[in-house]
Amino acid sequence: MRQIRITTADGPRRRWALAAAVLPLALLVTWDGVPGAGEAGGGGGQPDGGAATAQRATARPEGIMTRQEWGADESLRSGPTTYTGAVKAVFVHHTAHDDVYDCAEVPEMLREMYGYHVGRRGWDDLGYNFLVDRCGTIYEGRAGGLERDAYGAHTEGFNSDTVGVAVLGTFDDAPPPQAVLDAIARVAAWKLRSGVDPREHTQLVSTNDDSRFGEGEAVDVEVISGHRDTSYTDCPGDALQEALPAIRAEAARLRGDGAGAEPSGPP
């Protein structure tokens, strides 16, 4: 799938606004039966009040910018938050925005994306669970994910028992800043359920036919994977995909999973 990157003469603000307008081509963000996220019916999630808090191996990272802090209009959301089971995999994305933006503009960028996902895609909320800017700041995406595991709309067929982390920018060629890699690792170390080694593999089951795998097919994936690993897309870009081993190693270090040791799972 070809990704679109737009540059104009109107400065960074105009560039990312236009990029947001072509998100269907750039992101391939879809759903797998998330209520309010493209189709009705369950995809394994539980409505508010039905999911227990997962046991965490590490504490929540400090400094996450909440929805309230970035100005999410909660009146746009429809229905209760849906929760999934304990997280056993993390999917990494890039948003295909232009790389040139001021991190002070990110709250406005998120409001634009949120409005697009709800207003144009017809979803009940922002698709990604968390987002990271090029300065390394982590942002709360889909509501409910700070205390529990919210069911997102980020990876076709694989939103159950996973979390989606999207980096604002395009990483086809330019390597992501170290601050970005560290931020993704912090989210992964926190969200992955206790006992999961970020450097190993896990098994997920596809919930629809919109990915590279048919509905009901069991798939062996790396615990920290790129969007392209299960979907027909170039996301998260070659450069960010190539950085995933470093993210896995840092997440393992943060969790105390024997940094520097060889993982026991498949190579």
Automatic annotation (TrEMBL):
Gene3D superfamilies per record: Peptidoglycan recognition protein-like
N-acetylmuramoyl-L-alanine amidase domain mapped to chain residues: 75-237
Alphabetized InterPro entries for the sequence: Amidase/PGRP_sf (IPR036505), Amidase_domain (IPR002502), PGRP (IPR015510), PGRP_domain_met/bac (IPR006619)
Positions of region (Disordered): 38-62
Chain coiled-coil ranges: none
Pfam families cross-referenced by the UniProt entry: Amidase_2
Residues of the Peptidoglycan recognition protein family domain: 62-209
Biased composition (Low complexity): 49-60
Signal peptide: none
GO MF annotations in UniProt: N-acetylmuramoyl-L-alanine amidase activity; zinc ion binding
A GO BP annotation: peptidoglycan catabolic process
UniProt feature, compositional bias: Gly residues: 38-48
Family of the protein in this entry: Belongs to the N-acetylmuramoyl-L-alanine amidase 2 family.
Protein name: Secreted protein
Organism: Streptomyces xiamenensis
